[in-house]
Amino acid sequence: MNWKRWIATCFGLGRMPIAPGSWGSLPPAIVFGLLMYGGMPVATVVAMAAMLFVGCVTCILYAPASIAVKGRDDPGEVVMDEFAAQALTFLAVPLVVPRALSGWECLMLASFGFLAFRVIDIFKPWPIRKLERLPAGWGVLADDLVAGLGSAVLVHIALVLLVRV
Fold this sequence. Notes:
The chain has 165 residues and is mainly α. It has one domain. It is built from 7 helices and no strands. It has helices at residues 3-8, 20-37, 41-70, 80-90, 93-96, 103-123, 136-163. The longest helix is centred in the middle third of the chain and has 30 residues, at 41-70. The N and C termini lie far apart (46 Å). The mean pLDDT is 91.
């Protein structure tokens, strides 16, 4: 595997035999949970923004290498799109939480955001699936970013209902 594909797989997470997209989504969810638990909302926003940026850029630049080898528009091994979109799910959360969250709340919020994103990404409700038709790395990335926005909305609804922000 060449280095471009290695990066597009999030350093091998996309090569996991079961649920590679979930493995690619996991690092941002873990970082979010840990930073929020540590009471570091500014660091959380910076980390999520950095992961979003790095995931987007690497997906656009390096997904075409996997597309060429695998012959599919959105090869399952490319998970930097999930990495970026999962970070997008959590990006604004620290900006709307007016108080420190308990460890339980951080765990529940990180878990809910992870699951919400995975469900939306897997089922790709209309019109998300149509975005896969965009060329090269853009098509790989765009559907996941919209799924990330959808899951961000669900996380914010959960914050209002459950955490009472």
